């Protein structure tokens, strides 16, 4: 077959597929020309024209025709969960074991094959006593239903009203005492939650901060 560009030596490749992925923080920083930390940074001369400066600080262009603009990366001082992805975050948390981070649906089949990679995971353990019951993550409220556009614009505290909770599943509340306490959980039950210091091990429901939701847990 004829190589169309062989004469001029232009390298050619055959495109077989495209994959889409999320950028990592490092990739975002690599491809950005400026960090947005202060509100005034959004008009930084590094992001392109017009910016009040005579030229673009990244490419040196002096007219908008010569500069398409350059991307920046916004650095928020605290972790914020995107309200539009809130429900997906809850779904993902519920599909993954909090201890060994394997997908829950694969867990049983793997174990039935005799694989023991999760045998040491206390949350996956099926020894009958089930000392470490499953955790169910829940959205306290559904942002898609409650957050109309108008509400987001007029209610600046709306982020306080959406939270993710982690709840112990399948524990029967001891109804003989009316204070709602349950059987005592193992002391390290909530250890999968970063920076959580439970005052007592019989807490069956905790509220997670966005930081706790998004921070990768340490090695187990
Ligand atoms: Zn430019
Ligand atoms: Zn596990």
From TrEMBL:
Its EC number is 2.7.7.6. The keyword Nucleotide-binding does not apply. One of its GO terms (molecular function) is DNA-directed RNA polymerase activity. InterPro entries: DNA-dir_RpoC_beta_prime, RNA_pol_Rpb1_clamp_domain. GO terms for cellular component: DNA-directed RNA polymerase complex. GO terms for biological process: DNA-templated transcription. Keywords: DNA-directed RNA polymerase, Nucleotidyltransferase, Transcription, Transferase. It comes from the Eukaryota. PANTHER family: DNA-DIRECTED RNA POLYMERASE, DNA-DIRECTED RNA POLYMERASE IV SUBUNIT 1. This is DNA-directed RNA polymerase. It comes from Hordeum vulgare subsp. vulgare (Domesticated barley).
